[in-house]
Amino acid sequence: MATQTFLSNATVNLTQGGTTWDLSDQCSAVTLTVGNEPLESTAFSSSGAPTGRSYVAGLQSVEVSLTMYLSYGATATPDTEVETVLAACVGKSSTLVISPSGATESPSNPEYTITGAYLESFTPINSSFGELATVEVTFTGGTFVRDIT
Length: 149
What we know:
The protein is mainly beta.
């Protein structure tokens, strides 16, 4: 059973091409999935055939999904709008820094830095009558580091 719960208020910062954007005020959801690709290490045993497959950790695997409110601006400055930022990131590697609740990392608020996250594509126009325009983007790849200090 969980011993601590919190009201989510994630921070999301994205750096690409030397510019860093705080996207926290434009995100309504963030999902970070980290792990390692499994490499099979099953071997013959001296007492007969193996009874199950064995695995070891391979390369790191990272996926970051963001739900963001679409907005439009003219230039890629730190105060720019979502569409301009994402357009600058398509087809390039970026760095994402994400924490579940605020910018101060701690054991109860770990910060994940994903370096080399790749944005393959995004939908720059996603409009429905009478609704706020949102966009779902997924960054894949790169390496992650977890920090609690």
